[in-house]
Amino acid sequence: MVLGKARCHGGVVTAVTMPDGFPIQVSPVESGRMHDLVAARRHALKDLARAAIELDLPTLADQGYLNAGHGVITPNRTPRTRWAEPELTVDQKTHDLLLRGLRGRGERGFVLLVGRWKALRRTTASPRKITQIVAAALTCTHYEHGWNTDHTPR
What we know:
Elements: E1 11-12, E2 15-17, E3 23-26, E4 30-31, H1 36-43, H2 45-54, E5 59-60, E6 72-73, H3 90-116, H4 127-144
Parallel strand pairs: 5-6
Antiparallel strand pairs: 1-4, 2-3
C-alpha cells in the first residue's frame, strides 16, 4: 500500500524524513498507478529543491527519481549488456554503495510508520481515506517520539 503500487485501490505516498530517518512530512496519497516521481513532483520536490539550493541539503533517492532535478542524488544506472555500454567504474560503484547506506536511514521513516501502525500495512481503502490514515499515523508517530507540530523536540 504505502511503499509502492497495489492491485486494489492502494496508493503512492511521498515522505520527507530527517537525516536520521524520522518522518517529518508525508504527501497526500496519489493513485497507485501514478509513478513515484510524478507524485513527488506534485508534493515534495519543490520544498526539497529549495532546501538543496538555499540550505545546501541534498535529497537522496532511488533510481526511479533519475533526472528529478537539482539536489536530488540518485544511484548510477547499471549498464545494459545488449548495448555494449561500459561497466560502472570503481568510483561509481563506491558512490552507489555509500548512497545505499545513507538511503537506508531515510527508509527508516517508512518503517516507523508502516511497521508501527498496522492500519497502513494492507489497506484497500480509497486514496482519500488512506491520506487521512497516513496523516494520523504521522501525527501519532510524532507524539510517540516526543515531537511538537513545529518539529521541535519536547
